[in-house]
């Protein structure tokens, strides 16, 4: 029993709603007011908010905390999620621009998680790669304002790609919730 690591106490930075990550006036995702107008604007807002959520879950942590793995045998960590989602963004760019060469960022399957080591340089590179790949995905998606546009050769619609991106971030933001709570006890949606 000597190898049992004590769990951190649960806490939140929110004072208004105890189940929130932060108070509404501090939350960049705060969506008080009217909802976006139309399907495209709604999809863009959901993706923007999930991307912001992932970054918020990583704020204030050092390289060791970001690289800390969940539970064996999983290799998942917050740093691994940053790296993984950069690869996800790049992968969807390949669907949007099939004629362009999109080599994987981390070399091999699971390289995104396996290579997530507690080094400040890797953290910086992961954040830069994610921001770069998000910008490139957004630029590629902007060329297709019609959600019903079908891409060749896959036949996938732009709507499908946008929803898949949202789904990927939503799933991994759930992982990030648990990973962050394991690191320092901070909770909140």
Give a quick set of tags describing it.
single chain, 189 residues, mainly alpha, Four Helix Bundle (Hemerythrin (Met), subunit A), globular
Task: Describe the structure in your own words.
This protein has 189 residues and is mainly alpha-helical. The protein has a single domain (39-184), classed as Four Helix Bundle (Hemerythrin (Met), subunit A) (Up-down Bundle). It is 52% helix and 0% strand. The chain contains six helices and no strands. The longest helix has 27 residues, at 158-184. It is globular, with a radius of gyration of 18 Å. The two termini are 33 Å apart. The model has no long low-confidence stretch (mean pLDDT 92).
Alpha-carbon Rg, integer: 18 Å
Tally of separate domains: 1
* The level-1 CATH class: Mainly Alpha
Q: What is the overall shape?
A: globular
**N-end to C-end Cα span:** 33 Å
CATH architecture: Up-down Bundle
| Low-confidence segments | none
CATH topology: Four Helix Bundle (Hemerythrin (Met), subunit A)
The number of distinct helices, counting runs of at least 4 residues, comes to 6
Task: State the major sheet.
Answer: none
Task: Describe what is shown at a glance.
The protein is mostly helical and 189 residues long. Helix content is 52%, strand content 0%. The protein has a single domain (39-184), classed as Four Helix Bundle (Hemerythrin (Met), subunit A).
